[in-house]
Amino acid sequence: MIDVATVKEALGRIQDPLLGRTLDELGWLDKVALQGDDTVLLDLAPSYAGAGGELRPLLLAALAPLGVDQLGMRERPVIPRVRAQGGLPGLERVKNIIAVASGKGGVGKSTTAVNLALALAAEGAHVGILDADIYGPSQPMMLGIAPGTKPGVHDNAWFVPIVAHGIEAMSIGFLLDGDNTPVVWRGPKATGALMQLLQQTQWSDLDFLIIDMPPGTGDIQLTLAQKVPVAGAVIVTTPQDIALLDAKKGIEMFRKVEIPVLGVVENMALHICTSCGHAEHIFGSGGGERIARDYQTTLLGALPLDLRIREQADKGRPTVVADPDGEIAGIYRHIARQLGAAVATAAQLDLKKNPTIVFE
Description:
Elements: H1 4-12, H2 23-26, E1 32-35, E2 39-44, H3 51-63, E3 70-75, E4 94-101, H4 109-122, E5 127-131, H5 139-142, E6 152-154, E7 158-160, E8 162-164, E9 167-171, H6 187-199, E10 206-212, H7 219-227, E11 232-237, H8 241-256, E12 261-266, E13 271-272, E14 279-280, H9 287-294, E15 299-302, H10 307-314, H11 319-322, H12 327-353
Parallel strand pairs: 2-3, 4-10, 4-11, 5-9, 5-10, 11-12, 12-15
Antiparallel strand pairs: 1-2, 6-7, 8-9, 13-14
Helix pairs in contact: 4-12, 6-7
């Protein structure tokens, strides 16, 4: 017959595959209970969303020699806040702002941003998304929000974000008269609109606010880097050299303004023919991995060139929602877990750089 101490000893040596520390070191085994002789109930309070997705098979393997074949897990992510660049004060109700950016258009940045937001939510985090592409907002369509839908207004001072598929959303597209209405503004007006959307939206308590950035390194990107408390950036690229060249410029921009690049997502990495199953690297191979290695960051994941991703986003039901148990949704959720772990690690590094001083 097993006891709690035996279970804790077996599990304590397991290393979290994304954080690289044991469960004992992380303090994640405070609440362990037994149900009969073959079931362990584990109440995790991990520091990043979706820790159990990577841990579960390791936990089961460690428990098998004890005769345990059932594992009940409840995850309550306790996600830390990462200190923003330049000492900028954070938003009161938003822990971590993540910029999803690309050096050039057409690499699938907005599709990646919305699926990443939905994947983080599916992993247990509270998430919002801000469409910062003032000139070409796409999130209203991708989230399936009906044309003409307007955000509510609270106390004549705050926009109330629109909730779609379980995440909060705000976009200049909600405030325009129609889908075909162009935004013909000079840079200062566009950046002013971005700041208003960010700061005058009544976000609820969010673990992550994903900002879908416009492509390039212009006024909006510079304003965000100087005035918005960003925890980190995710760079989206395709494998071909021209896209990688522009992605490097984006990485360099974030580095110059002291915003950490938390990782790279390689989009359209591989195409598999639906007729014959032949796999082909249409845009080249290994580009995302090379750029991540060159800039000492992480390749968060690689996504295929797949017709379904485009079709599902166009229909307002991105892949993570349209096919939550599918292979591609699984890749997005793995990317979300990797990102969550990167944020948790960055928060731990901040604590080491800024020890708490107690005056007695």
